[in-house]
Amino acid sequence: VMFKSPFFFPWLYADLIWRIPTQEKKLYLTFDDGPVPTVTEFVLTELEKAKAKATFFCIGDNVRKHPEVFREIIKDGHAIGNHTFNHLKGWNTPLKTYVDNVKLCDSQLKADTSQLSIQLFRPPYGRIKRSQIKALKEYKIIMWDVLAHDYSKNISPDRCLKGSIAATRPGSIIVFHDSLKAEKNMSYALPRFLDHFSNKGFTFEGIT
Description:
Elements: H1 8-12, E1 26-32, H2 39-49, E2 55-58, H3 60-65, H4 67-75, E3 79-82, H5 95-111, E4 120-121, H6 130-135, E5 140-141, E6 146-147, H7 157-167, E7 173-177, H8 183-199, E8 203-204
Parallel strand pairs: 1-2, 1-7, 1-8, 2-3, 4-5, 6-7
Helix pairs in contact: 2-8, 7-8
């Protein structure tokens, strides 16, 4: 299991954002697939305890179902990104269907916030075709250099934590998931990950 993105991905897709280069002790936590009651609220509580800001890549249909949880994310001052309306896999989806689904997610996010524009996008599964990248050029497409694998049944909570810590460096974009599938590993790893890096003098920021 690789916690760090293979070195050639950022080289092949240089127009996507894999990491935010810095010498400062800054990290960029991101959460995919929410909002989900209880799970997202757990994340928000832990972030608040650590005085950390993060970026939430939300599925439009989950925002539609749980608008009150989504509003909590906004109220706490975190950054918001688009993760499609139905968690579509770009490689298997025709261009127009994919772009329409992204726009539908945008409409849902805007309906529930006073944010005029959503500028961040993350493709579900990290799978996106070049034609889709081109069609979504008004967004900053945010990938990652650290994947926690918190959704994996084959990884223990401790392995999830240790692998994520080992792969992280200044400017890393780290992916956790505020989903039911990831809850067991994420709820163990996240508070400990926050503690570990806070104790080393790192700050956690939203992506702008």
